[in-house]
Amino acid sequence: MKILFLPIDNRPVCYQLPKLIADMNEDIELILPPRKLLGGLHKQADVDGLFKWLSSVKKVDSAVLSLDTIAYGGLIPSRRSPETFEDIKNRIEKLKQILVKLNAKIFAFSSVMRISNNNINQEEKEYWNLYGEKIFKYSYELHKYGKTETDIPQEILSDYITTRKRNFEINKIYLEWQKQGLFDTLIFSKDDCAEFGFNVKEAQELEDMGGITKTGADEIPLTLLARSVDTGVNVCPFFLEPEYKNLISNYEDVSIEKSVLGQLELAGCDVSGMSSADVVLVINNFKDHQGEIVMKRPTEEFDKIWLPPDKNYAVADVRFANGADNAFIEQLFDKGLGRNFLGYSAWNTSANTLGSLICAVKVLISAKNAKKFQPSAFKRLQAVRFLDDWAYQANVRQQLTRPDVKELSSKMKIYEERVGAVLNSELTVTKYSFPWDRLFEVEIGIN
To answer: For 231-376+390-399, CATH number?
Structure first.
């Protein structure tokens, strides 16, 4: 099974993680572009190089595409790019010609431009450091009440609205292509959502025109990768706090229950009861509100006695955003993962965690069904997730003041030993790095 995969950018969760997942199934050949062609925090993708790469791919069964990568040079450039609508339109028309010739099933997604509720311009236009919160408020109130007042300079507001309109019109072109039959699946992603705003309004308009929208972003290529794997999987969602499954996670606009069901549906999984499930999806959900360690937003840690189910299970740890629930991990590790353990994730948002975990589970079950499973690749994937989501994000990250690989490597040693023991494997970490030179993400190489 040959799958072409065009990531959003060069981050580990976008480039490394799909490969780690696909490696569990020796029947999957994941065809990725050279990493140097992809965009980063401060650079756009080499779109001409990506066009050459796409044109060189002769025969695949399916393709999973981040359309923002070609249109704008990546997800972050989609918010920053000064190019005109005509510039972007001409570029994506060239992409369409390549996709028609490829003659494969196309699973694609494009983002609905987010509105970040802060004054941090690291991933936004320069003026966001002064007007980000005000733009968010303007967007929220205008959508909710139909009118609002603001002191945002007119030239800045005009630039922002022009950029939004450009991206929205490009998304409408993709929707026309969908109606023409180009895409097997087309998703419009909603990243960092609130209840109201330009992004919510645009998503509603796309839905009214027949489009499909999903809350999330970075995990959607993985969910589409899962969808491209033609294996039936019955999943039983099991909430550790079932009376609170109607609560909404940070950075999202739907309940955690709807997020779970939406991710399963998009991945091509069937929801079932416990007795008929191929896998139990254990969700360590939150009470009252989702916590976030790095933002110093506490929440009640897991405090029940929990035993893993007596059948295949995987754990989506979403009690905290951006990292694991330490109390839950202690129970999980103390009891042992057991022979039925199929995976763990606590990456960033709830949608990120769920989409990546469900993808890994579906690829794993497909591999086992076809007797193509690679146990060493499974352990490598789990080692990276535990070291990233638990060791780094929930613990070591709080001890660092700047991206320092030497200090990171030293502080991670004790966690490496614990994870190796839990996975019953001698781990050799080949590298740590901060690929975007910031503390938000870390890259971990495992031998």
So the answer is: 3.40.50
| Residue 336 to residue 382: CA distance in whole angstroms | 14
The contacts of residue 312 (CB under 8 Å, 6+ apart) are 277, 278, 279, 280, 340, 342, 365
Cα gap 411→396, rounded to integer Å: 7
6 sits in which H/E element: strand 2-6
Over residues 247-275, the pLDDT tens digits come to 999 988 889 999 999 999 999 999 999 99
- pLDDT tens figures, 289-300: 999 999 999 999
Instruction: Look at the alpha carbons of 437, 443, 23, 307 in this order and tell me if their dihedral is positive or negative.
Output: negative
Distance, first Cα to last Cα, the chain: 25
Is the distance from CB of 381 to CB of 349 less than 8 angstroms? no
Q: Which two tokens stand for residue 373?
A: 């499973």
Q: Pinpoint the residues of the chain covered by CATH 3.40.50.
A: 231-376+390-399
Q: Is the whole model's pTM more than 0.90, yes or no?
A: yes
- Cα dihedral 95, 100, 104, 107, rounded to 10, equals 50
